[in-house]
Amino acid sequence: MPEIFDEIICRSGTGSLKYDMESRGRSADVLPLWVGDMDFRAPQCILDALSERNAHGIYGYTEPYGDYYDALLGWFSRRFGWSPQRDWRVLSHGLMNAIHIAVRALTQPGDAVMITQPVYQHFTEAPLFNNRRLVCGTLIENNLRYTIDFDEFERLITENSVKLYLLCSPHNPAGRVWTRDELEKIAEICLRHGTVVVCDEIHHDFIHGDNRHTIFSSLSPEAADITVLCTSPSKTFNVAGIQLANVFIKNPTLRERFLAEKAAMGLSQAPVSAILACRAGYSGGEPWLCGLLRYLDGNFNLISDYISSGKLPGIKFTKPEATYFAWLDCRALNMEDRALRRFFEEGARVLLSDGAGFGNGGSGFMRLNAACPRTVLKDGLDRIAGALCLSSR
Ligand SMILES: Cc1ncc(COP(=O)(O)O)c(C=O)c1O
What we know:
Aspartate Aminotransferase, domain 1; 38% helix
């Protein structure tokens, strides 16, 4: 059977943030391996659901309907053994939208909001854009394995009276699947200090190998009580442009405050395309996702092969436990961050995400989005290998 993920689909001229780079002053011959969406067509069940509505021709205000919640809750139950109650869920217009609402609803201006870096670049925005105090911890890195420094974690919470902790689980960019023990420790500390946990699980369908993801709210009823759990089908089925998140808030007080803030921001129904895509993906998208995970594993093997065969001297990589990102350790190239970015963009003609943008601990790293056809990835790796070869002369 031909591999559907091998197909190269032209995305230029579609307004793609990732591809239409000339409008951002970047050259079109640079290969984009940066923004967190994939170069694969969404599963057929989603295309069919959207085609059906296109044929119908009416896109009026739409609420989740039919078996939307059965599909959603069935997915969590099958894949993670978690069965939240229906009334815990709230819709928002994308994951970042959910995080901004939670920060505004559950903290006051001046309150401390904590993150642990390196972490998804936009995590700093919800606190900073809303006049909260940003507190940044730093993950411990040991031979490219990242862990949480729990002494620092609790000290920062105590010293700053942190009201809300923003957790990325599994972790972008370092690709960790936090173990149940690690998550329990986070919950225990946050419960002790009355800190709300806003848990971003947008990457939880990209779990590799024998790793097992634990949904934060499934840890215990007490953990669920302090948690705003943010999920989305957008990464899972490559439908990031639909902008929808399913948020689960067990605690009725937190949920009411979240809903009041959402209303105050003038947000009501989610886009009709988002509702349709979400329902279709969670109903019929599982075989597609299984194939995708196998394909991504092959892509990560390709990167490992390049490294182990010495084609990328100065760059280190270990396969991630989760996500479709390769977190490349370029520290041995001895370039400061601006020079490193220039080396990749101008020397190798590939656009990656700067590690430094992910905050503490990100300097000297670059994040490569490996969710593309293998020939495209190979082209990117060849470009980097060629530039490294030239620079060593
Ligand atoms: C950890 C994480 N959270 C949130 C987002 C953005 O989600 P959305 O587009 O739904 O706001 C991303 C996108 O890359 C991400 O990696």
